[in-house]
Write a structure and sequence with these properties.
The structure is a homotetramer. Chain A is an alpha+beta fold. Chain A is 24% helix and 34% strand. Chain A contains four helices and seven strands, in the order H-E-H-H-E-E-E-E-E-E-H. In chain A, the strands form two sheets. In chain A, strands 1-4-5-6-3 form a five-stranded antiparallel sheet. In chain A, strands 2-7 form a two-stranded antiparallel ribbon. In chain A, a hairpin with a 2-residue loop joins strand 4 and strand 5. The longest helix of chain A is centred in the first third of the chain and has 17 residues. Chains B and C meet through helix 2 and strand 3 of B and helix 2 and strand 3 of C.
Chain lengths: 148, 148, 148, 148
């Protein structure tokens, strides 16, 4: 069985854009965290979850998700420079850490070589009280399916 | 009377940062709109207004501003390249267009030469109904003081 | 003949991401210009051009494009709010303005309704002298094919 | 002796801007790394260094810094939410790690409480060969003065 296709929500790609570089000619470092977060959003959508059930917004006030997922920690390592037009392969490895927290490790490859990796850790909180709480059914489902 | 000092909330400055450039070596164009918006925010604060009375946020849900100020139009002209470390002088010219709208023209100078200019137009809307409405007392006060 | 498929490099799409919104719950205005520029880059690539032939970089110093394409003017109109997860259809309309300049009008639609539009104008310059010059063969080719 | 004033290049401040928040109402996480980098740039300038001696640019090709300082690692912890208009105090703690590398720990405080912290590690490389090298005299001077 081809795991590349069986968990297609963990295997993404993108292309480096001009506005992501700085005058040194390579991507400006914190753009990698944007890639991490956008890859996570794309992964949730490809798995089948709705953005409006996960991400709070004033426009959605009457139906706000009860659980918010603020980021409490993140880190990244940069191994090779990336420039405009480079094709990047992205691999996500989500794991549950506790009843109310999980993290996503994201590996970025170019020509089959790892060029950078990022890690983003989320803590579930009740969006009203802002106290820690358990992860939602949706996020738990995505985490379990991702780590099978 | 020194107009530079009498309306100090319309005369700002900033320094070009490395992450604002792209691999052509100059600021990436849309960063100018960030400068326009941040200059407007700085102007409101220097004039004496509170950010929490102007800018909506889920964290401030019980005390949300009744009036939101979405941007309906903006434009910019780029005259000279800007690079990391350049010192920029900023001049804001706000004007009221109608009972519910205003725009801010922002001129950016380097060594007393205009290097770029931006314009951002806002329309007041009721934050619940999202229908057009009149500008708030606070914004009207800032507009009047700015155009005296 | 299906024009959607015959000029596929002018018909793109993207999904609104969480980090592109602000605390008012909708996309922060200048992100639209990032979409315009990234759509233009995607269009050039889908048409068959190489990023390294168009976009300068210090990493590519010995083979730098002779012609740079700085943006001299841009503008945008915002018609409807956009929130995280919205699916956006993108239509590009590039036109040549003069021997050394062109602009790209970009229309953004959601559920077949225009929600925003942007326009970005470029001026060709010699990357060494920084004086105005003619557009490159590559850009002229893309412009001609796009306006047939 | 007042250390706050004696090393003023390590004590900075900024105000949270609307465009730095996301629809959850707080700063979008990776903006913190922009703050880290911009604080570092401001620190170098306040200490007396020129941006053009540190940061490479195609516009500066004939006088390019011989040493580039790419970021090889970074991390951040987020302790409290930050919203538009919050006043942030910033404290930088730079340390040299090896002959060719250093890191800057940056603490962000609001109302005297630590709300977030970031760490960014740089490796000096020869900008032509891209091989590891020693830090420049300028950076060494700033590091020594900062850790006295």
């Amino acid at each position: 069985m081809d795991t590349l296709h069986s968990k297609n929500w963990l295997h993404l790609s993108r292309i480096v854009r001009f506005g992501e570089t700085d005058s040194a000619g390579v991507i400006h470092f914190y753009q990698l965290f944007r890639w991490c977060h956008e890859s996570w959003e794309e992964s949730l959508a490809k798995y089948g979850l709705n953005a409006s059930d996960i991400f709070p917004s004033l426009l959605n006030k009457d139906n706000e998700p009860l659980i918010a997922l603020p980021i409490v920690h993140c880190k990244a390592d940069f191994l090779k420079p990336l420039k405009t037009g480079d094709h990047i392969q992205i691999e996500l490895s989500p794991i549950k850490i506790a009843v109310g927290s999980f993290q996503v490790e994201t590996k970025f490859k170019c020509d089959n070589e790892t060029v950078a990796q990022g890690l983003v850790r989320h803590q579930a909180i009740n969006s009203q009280t802002r106290l820690s709480c358990e992860l939602s059914t949706e996020i738990n489902s995505w985490l379990e399916a991702s780590s099978l």
